[in-house]
Design brief:
Elements: H1 22-33, H2 50-58, H3 60-65, H4 89-103, H5 109-117, H6 124-136
């Protein structure tokens, strides 16, 4: 008896189970490798595979195969559907920074992320300073 390779209800988490979307994957990684680090917007109806695509892109082996060192380029996933109306921008940034610190291996960058994440009020200037520091560290 063979097993059905298709799943329903949960995003695909194993890269070998991910099929198709080659053009989209190539386009997204091409933008990330660009000197200006262009952004991409993943848009589509419910249950069309957006989370599976993002999970695939995040996988360290996939990033490595696309020329992005997993130790240098951090990918995090945050489901924004879980946000409540009372969630503030500061809370969102604190959570994102916490996730970044969790996956960061750099001994100089990780403490910076943890320090700013614990700040009670994250202003634009604090975030700008952080991202400039990250950029300087390459």
């Amino acid at each position: 008896m063979t097993t059905n390779p298709f799943t329903y209800g949960n995003p695909i988490s194993e890269p070998s189970h991910f099929f198709g979307r080659r053009r989209e994957v190539d386009q997204i990684f091409s933008r990330l490798r660009n000197v200006e680090f262009e952004s991409s917007s993943i848009v589509g109806g419910r249950r069309v595979g957006k989370t599976s695509l993002l999970t695939y892109l995040m996988h360290p082996e996939i990033r490595q195969s696309q020329g992005l060192d997993p130790n240098k380029y951090l990918f995090i996933y945050m489901d924004l559907e879980t946000l409540e109306k009372s969630t503030t921008p500061t809370q969102v940034w604190q959570r994102l920074l916490q996730c970044m610190a969790h996956v960061c291996c750099d001994k100089e960058i990780k403490p910076l992320l943890q320090e700013i994440q614990q700040t009670s009020s994250l202003g634009n200037f604090a975030l700008e300073d952080l991202f400039e520091s990250l950029d300087e560290e390459d």
